[in-house]
């Protein structure tokens, strides 16, 4: 039967969310376009590439994507105190994001999706029961119509605003170097560096990716940081006693930068003609900035909703919004709670937390047993319970009160207050 539009679904953005959405939609028989603004999928890369084992199991991802496997973690307080934890089993893999993105796009293409590169979209509009995207492809005007758009543009999406979405989120700005000849004590142990000197409003990191290579980076909240990310990264590389020692013979292979949306409002991610997935929807844990696994879940749910919507089910878009919230909405709320509290903590608070974890084997055992970087809420209540033990109450009362005072509102606030909200027009 003929249809009045070029495609059933147009997926915008060929990152993990877009590639998964396009592949799932095409496999369900939808006429699918995957549109990417860059000439090459996977470039430029933006993130550290850490992806939980949950994703490999749930989505049957191939082993050739893996660069390294992570089983431990080291957390450095501002005063240099370090707390180390090690799980009994691995938690995550580090993947080559360029290879991963290209693999997903290839899977989508194999299933029948049309991949359009060098296509920059400027706007979307509703026309006679369809949606039309407008932009340029290879420097020439481009337009296409579909029953539905799945927007996976990333942290700074353009099209949703043109269809009436109210995007409210807080952007943090990140910069990292991929380096070689790094001196690593434990190749399966990423290191996190906390404090206002290292990374105001977030943290800095050293992520081992195998073969004496690592990604060393920093994210900062521009409303809490007095300088650009480059200042904090350079200071980390030159001035941090651990990082400078690890990098004394290292050299830079690549530089990567990007924005991450945290503390997104809980407004609907589906409206007539469009669904939002991944960073465009704020599917990011506010504590770590990680979001690939949740983006893959949402992308698959969005494609399933698209199939129903194209088939005439107008409740499918609202159902998508409910389904992803049922899968991981609790995690986004819990990590937002933790982030609001962390942003209020002083260096003294962070020193106390790390020192307590380092000194208390029972608390470390709880973290190692329950800690899961995908589902961080599982650890929150046990951690607070342990922190309120008489032995720790004197040192941890302040941080716990901040969690209760500033964090718990994330469980019921429907938006971001003026104090927390920043426009997503900030430049890195």
Automatic annotation (TrEMBL):
User: Which SUPFAM superfamilies does the entry mention?
Assistant: FAD/NAD(P)-binding domain
* Pfam families named among the record's database cross-references: FAD_binding_3
Q: Which residues form the FAD-binding domain?
A: 7-323
GO MF annotation terms:
FAD binding; oxidoreductase activity, acting on the CH-CH group of donors, NAD or NADP as acceptor
What's the superkingdom here?
Bacteria
Q: Which NCBIfam families match?
A: GG-red-SF (TIGR02032)
Spell out the PANTHER family in the cross-references.
Answer: CONDITIONED MEDIUM FACTOR RECEPTOR 1, GERANYLGERANYL DIPHOSPHATE REDUCTASE
The protein's name:
NAD(P)/FAD-dependent oxidoreductase
Tell me the lineage of the source organism.
Bacteria, Bacillati, Candidatus Sysuimicrobiota, Candidatus Sysuimicrobiia, Candidatus Sysuimicrobiales
């Amino acid at each position: 039967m003929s249809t009045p539009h070029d495609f059933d679904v147009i997926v915008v953005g060929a990152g993990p969310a877009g590639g998964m959405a396009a592949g799932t939609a095409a496999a369900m028989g939808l006429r699918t376009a995957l549109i990417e603004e860059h000439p090459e999928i996977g470039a430029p890369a933006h993130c550290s590439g850490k992806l939980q084992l949950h994703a490999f199991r749930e989505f049957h991802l191939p082993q050739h994507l893996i660069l390294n496997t992570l089983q431990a973690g080291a957390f450095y307080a501002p005063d240099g105190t370090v707390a180390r934890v090690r799980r009994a089993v691995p938690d995550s893999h580090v993947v080559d994001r360029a290879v991963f993105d290209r693999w997903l796009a290839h899977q989508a293409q194999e299933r029948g999706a049309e991949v359009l590169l060098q296509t920059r979209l400027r706007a979307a509009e509703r026309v006679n029961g369809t949606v039309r995207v407008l932009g340029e492809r290879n420097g020439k005007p481009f337009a296409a119509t579909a029953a539905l758009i799945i927007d996976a543009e990333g942290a700074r999406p353009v099209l949703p605003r043109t269809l009436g979405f109210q995007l409210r989120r807080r952007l943090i700005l990140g910069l990292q170097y991929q380096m070689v000849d790094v001196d690593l004590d434990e190749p399966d142990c990423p290191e996190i560096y906390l404090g206002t000197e290292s990374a105001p409003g977030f943290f800095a990191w050293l992520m081992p990716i195998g073969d004496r290579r690592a990604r060393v980076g920093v994210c900062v909240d521009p409303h809490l940081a007095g300088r650009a990310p480059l200042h904090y990264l350079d200071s980390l590389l030159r001035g941090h006693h651990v990082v400078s020692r690890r990098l004394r013979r290292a050299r830079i292979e690549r530089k990567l930068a990007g924005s991450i949306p945290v503390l997104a409002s809980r407004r609907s991610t589906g409206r007539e003609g469009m669904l939002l997935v991944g960073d465009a929807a704020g599917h990011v844990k506010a504590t770590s900035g990680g979001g690939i696994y949740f983006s893959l879940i949402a992308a698959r749910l969005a494609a399933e909703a698209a199939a129903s919507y194209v088939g005439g089910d107008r409740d499918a878009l609202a159902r998508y919004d409910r389904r992803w919230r049922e899968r991981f909405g609790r995690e986004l709320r819990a990590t937002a709670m933790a982030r609001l509290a962390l942003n209020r903590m002083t260096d003294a608070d962070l020193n106390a937390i790390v020192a307590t974890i380092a000194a208390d084997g029972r608390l470390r055992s709880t973290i190692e047993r329950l800690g899961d970087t995908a589902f961080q809420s599982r650890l929150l209540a046990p951690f607070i319970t342990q922190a309120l033990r008489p032995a720790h109450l004197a040192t941890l009362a302040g941080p716990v009160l901040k969690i209760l005072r500033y964090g718990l509102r994330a469980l019921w606030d429907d938006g971001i207050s003026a104090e927390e909200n920043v426009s997503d027009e900030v430049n890195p």
